[in-house]
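note to self — DONT lose this again. spent like an hour looking for the file last time. sequence + predicted structure for the chain T wanted, 332 res
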Amino acid sequence: MKLEKEKINYPIKFKPILKRKIWGGIKLREQLKKDTTYDDVGESWELSSVDGFVSEVINGELKGKDINSLIKEFKEDLIGKVVYENFGNEFPLLFKFIDANDDLSIQLHPNDILAKKRHNSFGKTEMWYVLKADEKAKLYAGFNQDLNKETYLNFFNEGRVLETIYVDEVKKGDAFFIDVGTIHAIGKGILIAEIQQTSNITYRIYDWDRVDSEGNGRELHTDLALEAFDFTKKGSCLLNYDTEIGVPNKIYSCKYFTTNKLNVFKNLERNIKSIDSFVVYMCVEGKGSISIGEKKEEIKKGETLLIPALTEVINISSEKSIELLEVYIDYE
């Protein structure tokens, strides 16, 4: 059995799943070096177990296998004992890079209870980390005033929803936590990393009056959204965090995920033995490598690696420096 476990004890890389979007652009190709010729790619799904979009391993002994088959074969050794007890053979998180070449729709996501009832799905709690932002680029999240269902509907019916939303001008390194029920949208000119629950449920409220080539607007989900709103979500969703070198700087932690920022200069030995969970690293700046013993995998800006739960120590190295998001599930 020990030999079987060793099959997964290396940094695992997956093939990105690229998605064209009406608001997508060229930054995923030009800046994150994603393999596409299209000029409207909005999302790169780095690690996914969403039906129809399941990530496939592209390196090492497990090359060609997908994340679902790995969980079924290696269970808690891959994702962690408590994680496996809670999620079984389902991978609980979805990791993306997103290029908003135009404003995304104003939207929100349901909580676990409502998503299960309506869609047999998890809810969609998420967070964003800004890799790059055009000057004066805006992110919309949370209400800017006290509202309830009735007062919100008054704004909606008058076509004034945008007047109710808190707006942040963003810059590289900004991070936001978007809880379920929070009205939000990524604005034009922002390149972000997104960490979220495994869910593809979105309720679209307003889409900037966009139409396709045939003059049709995208579907709105006005009635579904009303029950999903959390009207207490008011004010900026911007997070404050430290930026020390060589230590995990906690950006945010909730029951669904913990996200740290690692700023590594040259080398760092990171002991993750106490973390009873898989650990995912998303590179948001620079390049380097992550090693488990003699098994090393290169990682550069725009790439993602999965470290199995059985791993105790990793080594991160770079000729200069590298910045990583470190994500895992912490039930303590």
